[in-house]
Automatic annotation (TrEMBL):
<dbReference type="Pfam" id="PF19040">
    <property type="entry name" value="SGNH"/>
</dbReference>
<feature type="transmembrane region" description="Helical">
    <location>
        <begin position="217"/>
        <end position="238"/>
    </location>
</feature>
<feature type="transmembrane region" description="Helical">
    <location>
        <begin position="33"/>
        <end position="51"/>
    </location>
</feature>
<feature type="transmembrane region" description="Helical">
    <location>
        <begin position="250"/>
        <end position="268"/>
    </location>
</feature>
<dbReference type="InterPro" id="IPR002656">
    <property type="entry name" value="Acyl_transf_3_dom"/>
</dbReference>
<dbReference type="GO" id="GO:0016747">
    <property type="term" value="F:acyltransferase activity, transferring groups other than amino-acyl groups"/>
</dbReference>
<dbReference type="InterPro" id="IPR050879">
    <property type="entry name" value="Acyltransferase_3"/>
</dbReference>
<feature type="transmembrane region" description="Helical">
    <location>
        <begin position="375"/>
        <end position="393"/>
    </location>
</feature>
<feature type="domain" description="SGNH">
    <location>
        <begin position="431"/>
        <end position="655"/>
    </location>
</feature>
<keyword id="KW-0472">Membrane</keyword>
<keyword id="KW-1133">Transmembrane helix</keyword>
<feature type="transmembrane region" description="Helical">
    <location>
        <begin position="168"/>
        <end position="185"/>
    </location>
</feature>
<keyword id="KW-0808">Transferase</keyword>
<feature type="transmembrane region" description="Helical">
    <location>
        <begin position="97"/>
        <end position="119"/>
    </location>
</feature>
<dbReference type="GO" id="GO:0016020">
    <property type="term" value="C:membrane"/>
</dbReference>
<keyword id="KW-0812">Transmembrane</keyword>
<feature type="transmembrane region" description="Helical">
    <location>
        <begin position="192"/>
        <end position="211"/>
    </location>
</feature>
C-alpha cells in the first residue's frame, strides 16, 4: 500500500480551465506574512499579553492557509498527471513536519525530567505518545482535557493538538480530491465549489452544534474543524486564477481588522469555536483571495514577517515548552516580561532548528528519499522517540524512591468518598441524585449541597453528624455554584444550563419536605458581580430557609496561585530541609484572594434571613491571614490550587464541630450537632 497512487478516470496531462496544471504553486510572499501574524497571535496569547487574550485564533488562520495550499498542490498534481500519488504526498508531509516535531519532543522530555518533580512529569507529559503520533487532539478531546483549564493547560504537549488536526486533514484530503477526480469534475469549477461548499457547511454545522453540546469535541476534533480547511480550499478554487484586485488594499485592511479585533475581543468565555471562529477564518480567507494579485501587500510581504513566517512551524513547536518550563528554570512565578523573554528564546531555538533540522529534511539532500522508505523510517522514528521518551520519564519517576515524594503525589487523589461513590454527575446530566450517609433511618436530616469546593467539607460533616442520630443527604455537582445565577462554564464553552436545571430540580424537590439543617457551599471564584453574589445567594436561601430549621453557607476556600502538590514537590526536591518551615513554602496571603470579599457578600445574604448563617472556616486554612500549603501538623492542605485535601479537612474536625455548635447555640437552635 505504501506505493499506492490514487488513480482516477481522468486522462493524464489534460489542461483544465479551472486552474493551471503546473504542480508547483507560485511563491506568494503574502502567505508567509499571514503565517507570521498567525504565530505571533498564538505566542502573544500564550505569553499572557493582555491585549491579545484571543490570540488562540492564530491556529484558525493556520487551518485556512493549509486548506488553501494543500488543495492547490493536490489539484495541480491531479490535473498534471491524472492521479494523486498518496504515498509521495504523505512522504513529503512527513519530511517537512516530523523531524522538527521529534526534536522538540525529545528536547522537552529531557529538560522536563530535570525541571519537574516525578509526579509532575507524569501529569504534564501524559500526551507524549499521542503528540509523537499526531493524535494528541484525540487524547485531549476524549480525556476531558480543556485547553483553557488549569491542570490540562500545563500539559507540555497541549499545543500539538492542532498538529494532530492538520495531519489528519493531510491523510483525508488527498482521498477527497481523488474522489473529485474519479467523478470527473476537477476541471469544472462550479462542481468543485459545490463539493467543497457541502463540506464547509456540513462541518460548520457540526462545529456549532458541538460547541453547545461538547465544546471539547468542537475544539479538538478534525470533523468539526474541516470547514476551515474547506474555506481555504474554496478560496483557492475560486480565486487562484483571478484573485481579487479591485480595492484589494481596502479588503486587506478589512481582513486584518477582522483578525485583529478577534484576537483582542475574543476569549474562552465566548464559547469558542462555534460561529465565532468564522470571523478570523473569513479574515484569513479574504487575505488569501487577494494574495495572488500583482500588488502584494507591502505589510504582509515585509522581510521581517516573511522571515518569521518561514519559521512559524518551528516557533509554534518550541514556544509552549519554553513558556511551561522556563519559569522554573529562571526562578519565580511567570511575569509578562519573563514570558516575552522566553518567547524570544523559543524564536531563537526555532531559527536554529529551522536551519539545521527542518530545511535539510524538507529541501536538502535528505528530502530525496523515496516515499516508501520515508514512511517506514518515519514510523520507526516515532516508535523509537516514544520509547526513548517513556524510558526517560520512567527513569526520573521510579516507584518507591522517596517516601516524601510519594506522599506528595498522593495528595492529588486525596478526595472525599462521595466521588468514588459516584455522587457527582458533573456536566453530563441534570439528574438529582442523593448520596445517603449517616443513619438512613434517623429522625433528624442534614441536607448538604455544594459544588466541588463545597463538597470538599463532606468528610468533616459526616464525622460531626455521624453519631447515628442524623440522616445525611448529599447533593453535589462540580463547577455548579449554589447561587441562582447563570454561569458560563469555560470547560464546556457555554452557559452551564445543566447546572441551572439541576439546581432548580433539586430546590423543587426540597420544597415538598421539611429538614432540620441544610448546609451549602460553593467556590468563591465564580465571575459574579457583588449584586449577583448577594441576590443570587439570597434567592437560594429564600427557598431553603422555609424548609429548614437553619441554613449554613460555608464560605468558599481561598484559591492559591500555584498548584500546591507540584510546588511542594519541587521545593522539597531542591531543598529537603525546606519542609521543616511550612510557612515559607508555596503560601499566599488571603488578602490577595477573592475569598474575604465573597465571604462579605455571603454575610449580607445570610443577614436577610433569621435562620441563615455564614460558616467561615477560612482562618483554619489561612491562620493569621497566610494560606498554607502545609499545615502545622505537616498535612498537605490543597490537592491542586483550589481544592482542599480530604486529610486536611479531617484533621480540622474538632475546630469545625466547635464552630458549628457555637454558631447554632448563639442562634438558640436545638438541632446543633452532637458533641465529640
Amino acid at each position: 500500500m505504501i506505493g499506492l497512487a490514487l488513480n482516477s478516470q481522468t486522462p493524464p496531462k489534460r489542461h483544465y480551465p479551472c486552474m493551471n496544471p503546473n504542480t508547483q504553486l507560485p511563491f506568494q510572499p503574502d502567505i508567509q506574512g499571514l503565517r507570521a501574524i498567525s504565530i505571533l497571535l498564538v505566542v502573544l496569547c500564550h505569553a499572557n499579553l493582555f491585549l491579545f487574550g484571543g490570540g488562540f485564533i492564530g491556529v484558525d488562520l493556520f487551518f485556512v492557509i493549509s486548506g488553501y495550499l494543500i488543495t492547490g498542490l493536490l489539484l495541480r498534481e491531479h490535473q498534471g498527471s491524472g492521479r494523486i500519488q498518496y504515498a509521495r504526498f504523505i512522504g513529503r508531509r512527513l519530511k517537512r513536519l516530523l523531524p522538527s516535531l521529534l526534536a522538540v519532543i525529545l528536547a522537552t522530555t529531557v529538560a522536563a525530567s530535570f525541571v519537574l518533580s516525578g509526579f509532575e512529569l507524569r501529569e504534564q507529559m501524559g500526551s507524549l505518545i499521542y503528540a509523537i503520533t499526531w493524535t494528541s487532539n484525540l487524547f485531549f478531546a476524549f480525556s476531558d482535557a480543556d485547553y483553557f483549564a488549569e491542570l490540562a493547560s500545563k500539559d507540555l504537549f497541549l499545543h500539538t493538538w492542532s498538529l494532530g488536526v492538520e495531519e489528519q486533514f493531510y491523510l483525508l484530503w488527498p482521498l477527497l480530491i481523488s474522489l473529485i477526480g474519479s467523478l470527473g469534475i476537477t476541471g469544472h469549477k462550479p462542481s468543485v465549489v459545490r463539493f467543497l461548499g457541502f463540506l464547509f457547511f456540513t462541518s460548520l454545522a457540526l462545529c456549532v452544534y458541538q460547541s453547545t453540546q461538547n465544546s471539547l469535541y468542537a475544539f479538538y476534533l478534525m470533523p468539526m474543524r474541516i470547514w476551515q480547511f474547506s474555506l481555504g480550499a474554496l478560496v483557492y478554487v475560486i480565486f487562484q486564477d483571478r484573485p481579487l484586485t479591485t480595492h484589494s488594499t481596502l479588503m486587506r485592511l478589512a481582513a486584518l481588522l477582522l483578525i485583529g479585533l478577534s484576537s483582542i475581543l475574543f476569549s474562552p468565555e465566548i464559547g469558542y469555536p462555534g460561529l465565532w471562529a468564522l470571523a478570523p477564518s473569513l479574515g484569513a480567507a479574504l487575505l488569501l483571495a487577494t494574495s495572488g494579485s500583482n500588488t502584494p501587500s507591502a505589510f504582509l510581504s515585509h522581510p521581517l514577517l516573511r522571515w518569521i513566517g518561514d519559521r512559524s512551524y518551528a516557533w509554534y513547536l518550541w514556544h509552549w515548552p519554553f513558556l511551561m518550563l522556563g519559569p522554573s528554570l529562571m526562578g519565580g512565578s511567570p511575569t509578562l516580561l519573563m514570558n516575552l523573554l522566553l518567547a524570544a528564546g523559543a524564536l531563537a531555538a526555532s531559527a536554529l532548528s529551522y536551519r539545521w533540522i527542518e530545511l535539510p529534511f524538507w529541501r536538502g539532500p535528505l528530502s530525496q528519499a523515496a516515499p516508501g522508505r520515508t514512511i517506514l523510517v518515519s514510523m520507526l522514528a516515532m516508535v523509537v522517540a516514544a520509547s526513548a521518551g517513556l524510558l526517560q520519564i520512567n527513569a526520573r519517576t521510579p516507584p518507591s524512591t522517596d517516601p516524601v515524594q510519594r506522599v506528595i503525589a498522593q495528595a492529588r487523589t486525596d478526595l472525599p468518598e462521595i466521588y468514588s461513590a459516584g455522587c457527582d454527575s458533573w456536566y453530563y446530566n441534570a439528574e438529582v441524585k442523593a448520596c445517603i450517609g449517616g443513619n438512613p433511618s434517623a429522625d433528624q436530616t442534614l441536607v448538604f449541597i455544594g459544588d466541588s469546593i463545597g463538597a470538599q467539607w463532606y468528610s468533616a460533616l459526616a464525622d460531626i453528624y455521624g453519631d447515628g442520630q442524623w440522616r445525611i443527604e448529599v447533593y453535589t455537582k462540580s463547577a455548579c455554584p449554589i447561587v441562582d445565577e447563570d454561569y458560563f462554564y469555560p470547560r464546556i464553552g457555554a452557559v452551564y444550563a445543566v447546572c441551572k436545571e439541576w439546581r432548580d430540580n433539586l430546590l423543587a424537590q426540597l420544597k415538598t419536605r421539611r429538614v432540620d439543617t441544610t448546609i451549602i457551599g460553593s467556590s468563591g471564584t465564580y465571575d459574579f458581580s457583588a449584586e449577583q453574589w448577594i441576590q443570587g445567594s439570597a434567592r437560594i436561601l429564600k427557598t431553603l430557609s422555609k424548609i429548614s430549621n437553619q441554613v449554613l453557607i460555608i464560605a468558599g476556600a481561598p484559591e492559591l496561585s500555584k498548584d500546591v502538590p507540584g510546588c511542594i514537590s519541587r521545593t522539597y526536591r531542591n531543598d529537603p530541609k525546606s519542609l521543616a518551615t511550612p510557612t515559607n513554602i508555596c503560601t499566599k496571603s488571603i488578602a490577595d484572594t477573592q475569598a474575604p470579599v465573597v465571604a462579605g457578600y455571603l454575610a449580607k445574604s445570610t443577614g436577610l434571613f433569621p435562620n441563615a448563617y455564614l460558616l467561615n472556616l477560612n482562618d483554619l486554612i489561612c491562620p493569621n491571614g497566610l494560606c498554607l500549603s502545609l499545615s502545622e501538623q505537616g498535612i498537605i492542605v490543597y490537592r491542586d490550587s483550589k481544592h482542599l485535601t480530604d486529610s486536611f479537612v479531617r484533621s480540622r474536625v474538632p475546630e469545625i464541630r466547635a464552630r458549628i455548635q457555637q454558631l447554632l447555640a448563639s442562634a438558640g437552635t436545638d438541632t446543633a450537632p452532637p458533641s465529640d
